[in-house]
Amino acid sequence: MTLQQLRDFLAVVEQGSFRQAARILDVSQAGLTNSVKALESSLGGSLLARSGRGVHLTDAGHRLYARAILIDREARRAEDEVRQMHGHETGTVDVAIGPSMTALLLPRVVADFRARFPKVELRLTSGFFEQILPSLQLGQVDFAVTSVPDEGAGGGLVSTPLLQTRLGVVARKGHPMADARSLRELTDCEWVVMGPPGRPGGTIVRFFEDNGLPAPKAAVRCESFAQVMALVNSTDLLALVPRVMLDQGLLGSLVVPVELDEHAHSFEICLVRRAEASLTPAAAAFAAMCESCSRIIAGMGR
């Protein structure tokens, strides 16, 4: 089994066919087929089942696929790390960022990172913790900056606390309930929420439960702050968002806080990475920038 054979195997799986994978890799289909057959021969069994609709993984193929992703990613990290240690600052840094930190953090750190590592490609993905977790576990990202559930990030992962998110209710200017002072006054309102209930993005459910109130009326569930704010700006929907985003003017001038006596449960934003994986110099530098900037943001939210 060779690294190239594993990479050929990954390409076929990800492209769904030998023909498309060969086109992407710019190799002959026959050569690619032989490479995968040699891998199967060395492992003593089939990894892919062929059909008129392409290929799909066998049970053994599924097992190998997860490990092959890690092997390929670690090999590329090793190449990047050694080159960067020798002064050749090239390669990639893959980072997953939660929705709130996408708005708060990225504008403050990306320009500095690009100035420091102009030849390193920064690849960013966004999502909630539940969406980011598989990429972390499979080694598809170097690290993540995201809200972490109360029970922690999970086994095999290391979390470095960055800041605590203080959440607040927001509404459009002129909303009939903008002057409400008690959460009970908002029980008949409809809400736009982010993420699944009970997790960092769905804290509004817990907010109502903690105050002995019936579940809120979640009218719309979104995956980005852009969607949330577009709806809050133009409708009577309410939302629960990180207060620092409002304080920093990131939600626009059409949104106002609803100053309630009750305080919503907060969540910790952490830098999360795999315990056994070391960061390349470029990834470590970007992580350090994220940590430093998070301390500044935390100070703004006090």
Q: Name the shape in a single word.
A: elongated
Q: Total helix count?
A: 11
**Percentage beta strand:** 15-25%
Q: Mean pLDDT, as a whole number?
A: 87
- Give the number of domains: 3
Tell me the total number of β-strands.
12
What's the CATH H-level homologous superfamily of the largest domain?
Periplasmic binding protein-like II
Widest sheet: strand ordering: 4-3-5-12-6
Span between termini: 55 Å
Runs with pLDDT <50, length 5+?
Answer: none
Element-level helix/strand string: HHHEEHEHHEHEEEEHEHEHEEH
The major sheet is characterized as: 5 strands, mixed
CATH fold label of the largest domain: D-Maltodextrin-Binding Protein, domain 2
Return the CATH architecture of the largest domain: 3-Layer(aba) Sandwich
CATH class of the largest domain: Alpha Beta
- What radius of gyration results from the CA coordinates? 23 Å
Q: How much helix, percentage-wise, in residues?
A: 40-55%
Class by helix and strand content? alpha/beta
